[in-house]
Design goal:
Pfam families: Oxidored_FMN. By secondary structure, the chain is of the alpha/beta class. The chain contains 13 helices and twelve strands. It starts with a helix and ends in a 5-residue tail after the last helix.
Length: 349
């Protein structure tokens, strides 16, 4: 019934059992003081691998203390954190799975009580509206990053990628979407710099390009995914002024870095990002590399999108929380349980 979705496929260096991807989902089950993951997280990912998920993308893993956006987030910048993730990757590989680490820095979307007393980092000192997730305090005014700060954060991304490979991950995903640090550099709303990291849209993509190149040097171009989006979590009404022209500039930047795999992120796969454009269809118009689809997909819409050549892989989030046996249910055509926030969000099963 879901022939294309369930067929094996080679992507980069990976031989995936199917085209199903576990989307990155923040879970907040790491030790808050150390940023290490425990046995419950090990079994959580093992279960998805045992189910037969083609590619697992982890929850966001922070690259530094200052990149932390709320409590209980895991990291990849200390030896202890690396050892914790080694247990996860070993478990996934024992079940025949493939897993990559999503590297994350939230930029201005945090508070000094979360980051260990440090002010948030951002391209410009513009405070975000809203409150810190699971904390309730308003976002702090961020500290504008100096060029030296920028270079240091790029090194932190590279170190996190190196640590990911040391921990046994099969690759990495760079979280450049949803209004976090990389996306803050990309947008004129949050980036009002006048140096080489600011200015027009092409110039504002400089930080994203340099992070991507640094990460690829550590993880490899054929083991690196770049996630980007038009939408921003802290700016619900934000939209690109000229979606097609903006996307063309993004794709030019992607090609300059040599990255081979993209994860265009949107809340609604079939929704329009403007009057005439759907994000994934627009991406396919200008991008011939690997593209991961996401955004309230169901098995039918995902299978059809793959058949139509719009996407190569299909990512699912909440359905995998509600159905740890998601793949097996598709194979047997069993009914899927509906996601229930009160039931599934707080459980690590």
């Amino acid at each position: 019934m879901y022939k294309k979705l369930l067929e094996p496929v080679e992507v980069g260096t990976w031989r995936l059992r199917n085209r199903i991807v576990m989307a990155p989902m923040t879970r907040c089950f790491a030790d808050d003081q150390t940023g290490t993951v425990g046995d419950d997280v090990v079994e959580y990912y093992r279960r998805r691998a045992a189910d037969g998920i083609g590619l697992i993308i982890t929850e966001g893993i922070i690259i530094s203390q200052r990149g932390k956006g709320t409590f209980n987030l895991p990291g990849l910048y200390t030896e202890g954190q690396v050892k914790g993730w080694e247990k996860v990757t070993d478990a996934v590989h024992e079940e025949g799975g493939t897993i990559i680490a999503q590297l994350w820095h939230v930029g201005r979307l945090t508070h000094h009580q979360v980051t260990g007393g440090f002010p948030p980092q951002a391209p410009s000192p513009i405070r975000a509206k809203g409150k810190v997730h699971r904390f309730g305090e308003p976002f702090d005014i961020p500290e504008e990053m100096t060029v030296d700060d920028i270079k240091e954060v790029i090194r932190q991304y590279a170190k996190a990628a190196r640590n990911a490979i040391l921990a046994g991950f099969d690759g990495v995903e760079i979280h450049g979407a949803h209004g976090y640090l990389i996306d803050q550099f990309n947008s004129d709303v949050t980036n009002q710099r006048t140096d080489r990291y600011g200015g027009n849209q092409r110039q504002r993509l400089t930080f994203m390009k340099e992070v991507t190149q640094a990460v690829m040097q550590e993880a490899g171009g054929n083991r690196t995914v770049l996630r980007f989006s038009e939408i921003k979590d802290d700016l619900p009404d934000f939209r690109w002024d000229n979606p097609e022209e903006t996307l063309k500039l993004y794709v030019e930047a992607f090609k300059e870095t040599g990255v081979e795999m993209l994860h265009p992120s949107t809340n609604h796969f079939a929704g329009f990002i403007s009057k005439d454009h759907k994000l994934h269809e627009l991406v396919r118009k200008y991008w011939s590399g690997i593209s991961i689809g996401v955004g309230d997909l169901n098995p039918n819409t995902a299978n059809q999108a793959i058949e139509n050549g719009i996407i190569d892989l299909a990512a699912f989030g909440r359905p995998l929380l509600a159905n740890p046996d998601f793949v097996q249910r598709l194979i047997t055509n069993a009914k899927l349980e509906i996601y229930d926030k009160t039931k599934h969000l707080s459980q690590l099963v």
